[in-house]
Design a protein that fits this description.
alpha/beta, two-stranded antiparallel sheet, nine-stranded mixed beta sheet, 369 residues, Rossmann fold
C-alpha cells in the first residue's frame, strides 16, 4: 500500500499551515465577552458607490446618499418626452378635436358613440370601428387592460386618446355604481347622484377612478390625450339697470372632474375657429416690380382657421405656464395638425434645454472662482 501524499506542493502546504496558525493566534488574543462567545467574522464589504449627482450645501458639494439617489432625485431639466406627452384639449362641437387627435401617429382613440372618428379622412391614429364603440364599464376595462398588456416598449401604440372625457365620465359613473351596489348592497343605485350614503363623495370617487386609469396608462409608458366638449350658456350678470345676459363658454364636464385632470396633464389647450372673408396677399409693387406689397382681398366665401390656445382656458383667462417658450396660440393645419403641435413642443423643450445648460454653466463657473 502506498502512503497517501498531499496534493499541495510543500511550499503551498507550509503557507496554508502558517496562515491557519496566525488566524488562531489572532483569535486567542482578541478579548471577547459572554463566556465562549466568538466575535463575528468581519466580511469584506463592497465599496459604497459614489453618486455622480451632487448637491451644493452651504457652499460645498456633497454627493447624495445612494438611498436618496435611488428615489430618482435630480436637478436636471426633464420635461415629458413628446411621445409620452399628456394633454387635455377642449373645444365646442365642430372645432376639430377629433380631427386633431386622429392625426397622432401610433395612437389609439377610445370612442364612446357610434361612428365617432370615422369621418376623419386619412387618419394616422387607430380608432374603434362603427358599432365597436365603448358603451359599458366592462367594455372600457377590457379596452384598457388590452392596452396595458401591450405597452409602448413592445406594442403598436405610444398614445391613448380619450375622445371625449365627458362621455368617458358617464362610463366611469357606471363602474362606480356597479362597484357600490356589489360592495355594499345598501341600496340599488342607478346613478352616482343616488348615493345618499356618499353624498358629494360619489363624484369624488368618479374623478379618482378617471385619474387612476390615466395614471395606470402613463405608468405603463403611454402618453394620453383627453378631449372634452365645451358648451355655450346664457347667464345673467349685473343688477338694476346694468342687468343683462351674456354668453359664456364652459366645459360640459364638471369642474370637480375636469379640474384635477387638467392639473395632472403636461399641457392644456382650447380649440377655437376663426372665420373671415378677408385674406392678406402679397402682390407685385407697381413702383418696384422686384418687391411686393401686402394687400387685403375680400373672398366670396369665408375661410376658417383653426387655433389651439395653450396658455388660456375657455374663458380667455391666462393659465399656469407649464413649459416655457411654448407659444400661447398655435394655428393648426387641417391635415396632420398634431405634427405642428409636437414640433412646437419639441422646439420649446430645446429652447428650455439650452437655457438650462447655459445657467448651469454660469453657475459652475461662478462657484469655481
Amino acid at each position: 500500500m502506498t502512503e497517501s501524499k498531499s496534493t499541495l506542493p510543500s511550499t503551498a502546504l507550509d503557507s496554508a499551515i502558517k496562515k491557519a496558525q496566525d488566524q488562531a493566534a489572532k483569535r486567542a488574543a482578541t478579548p471577547v465577552s459572554g463566556g465562549d462567545a466568538t466575535p463575528p467574522v468581519a466580511t469584506e464589504q463592497a465599496p459604497t458607490p459614489v453618486s455622480t449627482h451632487r448637491v451644493v450645501v452651504a457652499g460645498t458639494e456633497k454627493a447624495l446618499p445612494p438611498d436618496l439617489l435611488a428615489l430618482g432625485l435630480t436637478r436636471d431639466f426633464t420635461p415629458m418626452p413628446v411621445d409620452r406627452l399628456t394633454m387635455v384639449v377642449l373645444g365646442l362641437s365642430g372645432s376639430g378635436k377629433t380631427t386633431l387627435v386622429s392625426s397622432i401617429p401610433r395612437a389609439v382613440v377610445a370612442t364612446f358613440h357610434p361612428g365617432a372618428a370615422g369621418h376623419v379622412i386619412a387618419p394616422r391614429a387607430h380608432h374603434l370601428s362603427p358599432g365597436q364603440h365603448i358603451s359599458t364599464w366592462a367594455q372600457w376595462v377590457r379596452f384598457r387592460d388590452a392596452l396595458l398588456s401591450h405597452p409602448p416598449t413592445n406594442g403598436p401604440f405610444d398614445y391613448v386618446v380619450i375622445d371625449t372625457l365627458d362621455e368617458w365620465f358617464d362610463i366611469v359613473c357606471q363602474g362606480v355604481v356597479e362597484w357600490w351596489n356589489k360592495t355594499y348592497r345598501v341600496s340599488s343605485a342607478s346613478k352616482v347622484s343616488d348615493f345618499d350614503e356618499l353624498g358629494q363623495k360619489g363624484w369624488v370617487l368618479v374623478a379618482d377612478w378617471m385619474i387612476g386609469d390615466l395614471v395606470k396608462l402613463q405608468s405603463a409608458g403611454f402618453g394620453w390625450i383627453g378631449t372634452g366638449h365645451l358648451k355655450e350658456k346664457e347667464i345673467t350678470v349685473g343688477d338694476g339697470r346694468d342687468k343683462h345676459t351674456q354668453t359664456v363658454v364652459r366645459p360640459v364636464l364638471s369642474s370637480s372632474c375636469i379640474g384635477p385632470i387638467r392639473r395632472v396633464a403636461c399641457l392644456s389647450g382650447t380649440l377655437r375657429i376663426e372665420s373671415t372673408r378677408v385674406q392678406f396677399r402679397d402682390v407685385p409693387n407697381p413702383v418696384d416690380p422686384t418687391k411686393t406689397i401686402r394687400t387685403t382681398v375680400t373672398l366670396d366665401a369665408p375661410v376658417r382657421s383653426f387655433f389651439l390656445d395653450i396658455m388660456a382656458d375657455e374663458t380667455g383667462r391666462e393659465q399656469k405656464q407649464r413649459l416655457r417658450y411654448m407659444p400661447p396660440s398655435i394655428e393648426l393645419p387641417v391635415v396632420d395638425s398634431w405634427k405642428r403641435v409636437s414640433a412646437e413642443y419639441a422646439a420649446a423643450v430645446e429652447k428650455g434645454r439650452k437655457e438650462h445648460d447655459s445657467i448651469i454653466a454660469e453657475r459652475r463657473s461662478s462657484e469655481q472662482q
